[in-house]
Write a structure and sequence with these properties.
Elements: E1 3-13, E2 18-21, E3 27-37, E4 41-50, E5 53-56, E6 60-61, E7 66-71, E8 78-88, E9 91-101, E10 105-110, E11 115-120, E12 124-133, E13 137-148
Antiparallel strand pairs: 1-13, 2-12, 3-4, 3-7, 4-5, 4-6, 8-9, 8-11, 9-10, 12-13
Protein name: Mannose-binding lectin superfamily protein
Domain Jacalin-type lectin: 6-146
Pfam family, one: Jacalin
Length: 149
């Protein structure tokens, strides 16, 4: 019999800013990601479905950078988040993000400089995020819904 559990992975990045956390309970899928980016990731937000209704996170970070948004198809889900974190103006922050889905890739957004990281969803899908932010996205981690067979 198959069962599922949610596993918290990460975060990757620096320790500045304040803690951010999506309540991943009852989330069935992510429908949209918004990223503001330039030489680093300025801002990050997620739209998702919980209990049959769409909801959104607050914006994690500041208002700088260029806005990029992408929608996931109804059968599409995130299988990994990749990126770089490193020093920017004396702080360790997320410098770049790339989202890998079962159907393709979105990004990279920001600059691929610093320490590379990968947050994979092995045998599952990413259904939520956690991390830290202030004026920029300081760190990012994921919640993975794992399918046990």
């Amino acid at each position: 019999m198959a069962s599922t559990q949610v596993v918290k992975i990460g975060p990757c990045g620096g320790g500045g800013g304040s803690e951010k956390n999506m309540d991943s309970s009852s989330i069935t899928r992510i429908v949209k990601i918004s990223v503001r980016h330039g030489v680093a990731i300025d801002n990050f937000a997620v739209r998702f479905v919980r209990n049959g209704r769409e909801e959104s996170t607050e914006q994690w970070g500041g208002q700088g950078g260029n806005l990029t948004e992408f929608n996931l198809q109804s059968t599409e889900f995130i299988t990994a988040v990749k990126g770089y974190y490193g020093n920017f103006n004396g702080n360790f922050v997320v410098r770049s993000l790339k989202f890998v889905t079962n159907l393709g890739t979105f990004g990279p957004y920001g600059q691929e400089e610093g320490v590379p990281f990968e947050l994979p969803a092995i045998n599952g899908q990413i259904i939520g995020f956690h991390g830290r932010s202030g004026q920029l996205l300081d760190s990012i981690g994921v919640y993975v819904k794992v399918h046990n067979y």
